[in-house]
Design a protein that fits this description.
alpha+beta, six-stranded mixed β-sheet, 4 helices, 6 strands, elongated
Length: about 150
């Protein structure tokens, strides 16, 4: 690949991931899933084995619950960096105020502001096939008073 083609390819990869993060900011889970391969996998790393599954199942369930429990949830994309031929790393700050119990975190009306790292892998059609998400879960729970 020439450097111009590589740059265009990297931009195309990043655009798909930025669009996914923007759909998340809009709280539109169906739109988020539209950027993902139906057989794609997800790994919410701090949740261990319970955080592994299909994007359209586990991912959809967790994002739907987050939006329900944190109705003002918002995010800011700090950086999107193409890594290799099929991967993009995004640094995202996610914030919100809790209004309902979320998983093992009881609702105390707390607010969180947490750095998250999303690592996306995409297929040649720029559909997301794999997402790994990491954050400091202990700090998140501390911020929410848990």
């Amino acid at each position: 690949m020439t450097s111009a083609i590589k740059e265009q390819h990297a931009l195309s990869l990043k655009n798909a991931c930025v669009s996914f993060i923007f759909a998340y900011q809009q709280k539109n889970v169906d739109k988020m899933l539209g950027f993902c391969d139906p057989d794609g996998t997800i790994y919410f790393k701090p949740l261990g084995e319970a955080g592994k599954g299909k994007i359209h199942e586990l991912g959809k369930g967790i994002w739907t619950a987050l939006i329900d429990c944190f109705p003002d949830i918002d995010n800011t994309l700090d950086a999107a960096v193409a890594e290799g031929e099929d991967s993009v790393r995004c640094q995202v700050v996610i914030r919100g105020t809790q209004e309902k119990d979320f998983g093992d975190i009881p609702n105390k009306g707390g607010h969180f502001d947490s750095d998250h790292i999303f690592i996306f892998r995409l297929n040649p059609d720029n559909k997301i096939t794999d997402i790994q998400i990491s954050w400091d879960h202990d700090d998140l729970k501390r911020q929410l008073g848990s």
